[in-house]
Design a protein that fits this description.
This is Beta-ketoacyl synthase-like N-terminal domain-containing protein. With 70 residues, the chain is mainly α. Helices cover 33% and strands 6% of the residues.
Length: 70
C-alpha cells in the first residue's frame, strides 16, 4: 500500500495520554519515515536520525518533483 493512501490521523501510539477536554485526542503520524535514504541525499546518518521528519519528506518530494519535470 502506498504511503499516501494511509490515513495518518489516529488516536493510537500517542506519546502522552490526555484527559483535558481542550487537548486534541488524535495525532498525525507520517508513515515510512524510517525509509529515508541519507546516503543518496549526502546527509550524515547521525544527522538523518535527528532530522525533522518533514525535512526528510521535503527532500524526497522535491527530488521527485524535479525528476518528474525532466
Amino acid at each position: 500500500m502506498l504511503w499516501f493512501q494511509i490515513n495518518p490521523i489516529t488516536s493510537e501510539n500517542m506519546r502522552w495520554s490526555y484527559n483535558h477536554p481542550e487537548a486534541a485526542q488524535y495525532a498525525g503520524n507520517v508513515p515510512e519515515v524510517d525509509r529515508f535514504d541519507a546516503q543518496f541525499f549526502k546527509v550524515h546518518y547521525r544527522l538523518a536520525n535527528n532530522m525533522d521528519f518533514m525535512a526528510r519528506k521535503i527532500l524526497e518530494l522535491t527530488y521527485e518533483a524535479i525528476y518528474d519535470a525532466g
